[in-house]
Amino acid sequence: MSSLSGVTTIPFELIKEITGDFSEEKRIGSGGYGEVYKGVLNNGDEIAIKRLFSIHGLDAQTFEDEFNSHMRVRHDNIIRLIGYCCDTKNVPTKLHGKFVFADVTNRCLCFEYMQGGNLDEHISDESCIHDWPTTYRIIKGICQGLHYLHKGLDENKGIYHLDLKPANILLDTKMVPKIGDFGLARLYGTSKTIQTNKVAGTTGFMSPEFIQNGTISAKNDVFSLGVIIFHIMAGKKAYTDYWELRQSNKEFSDKSRQELIESVQEHWGKKMQATVGYTWGETDILGVKKCIQIAMSCVEIDRKKRPSTENIIHDLNELDAKIKNSSRKDPLSHVGQLKKDIMIDPSREVRFPFEPKRDVSCCLQLTNKAACFIAFSIEINPNKYRTHPYKGIMPPCTMCYITITSPAQEKAPLLCREDVFIVQSTRVNQDFTAEQITEDFLAAAVDDELILPIVFV
Question: Do residues 136 and 167 share a domain?
């Protein structure tokens, strides 16, 4: 294998081997230009392999366009190209009753494998399935990735994705979004508007001017971004209802906009208030309002009224500054708190039903609320208590029971400040094992920490 700026050529025979000859069991997705398979390289790295369909005159151009787009980009919110394959063999093919030799080319692009799947899998009928802090990070990450494509490479030339949608946004184990699938992407001068008679994309995410007359500009992607944020914030139906109302111009007014904002704020408020350990505050309300306002501005029918990605990033940075300033004024604000992926019931304290001269135990239920794997570790005074299990891995949306035992004593022990029950946790990939949860790992990787007092009753 050879490399080109860190991107490796991967032999087609190796790709066939690690995908089980492109078996159905290994297929993880498909699109208009190819199918995607999961494979594991000899070094243990998981990769996603996009095998382009063999369409004469189209496959070579599509492969080169997508390859060139990915070779230009390096950003935390853009999917990373690992390797590629362009393998041509002269093989016998039966034609008119006899065999002739023809060139057959197999083209593959290999990307980092994203354990979190695509964003579409994380959106329910009403909104994103995650809590608000995670949802906001996803929205901002998508905006940052798109801004990089438009402006981060060259001030005068940018990449227009032209097929931005939830299925083309991948998530890692920490729910960091990465824009992928550059099958339709093109490099354009950012100050120019182009006309084309070839309209391709995904219904519902294409801008009206692109559908009607093939107009291409940076505002095509901005429109798609607005639809995505709408789906994340309020669900697909809410976007459809809004778009139909906006397009008709009937009874559409500032009042209609305000009603939508209030509806979305109410939805997220109820959702987060039902989450144990989370305090819904003014900064959250501010964030929800700003994101739905951005979504509405992005899907303006007149593309000239839509913001640029630069405008959007500026608005989000201003929002972050307001939230940071608010948290300084109110030290009890939850802003900047941990994600609280794990919930404990009971959530206020560890209660032991004390009995003289007998071991006493209590059981706590840990619930993984996240759509990813969580590694957890229990910290408690080992001289006074025994815990089982004291560490482990929890799959997405599962429960685990922790038993804490206090050895037999004559009297209920006197408690001190150090008598607390601590759960440390972090998001990991599905191949992570409990043996890897060490002190060094926790010191570097802990995302969340829950602390409960211990009492005897």
Answer: yes
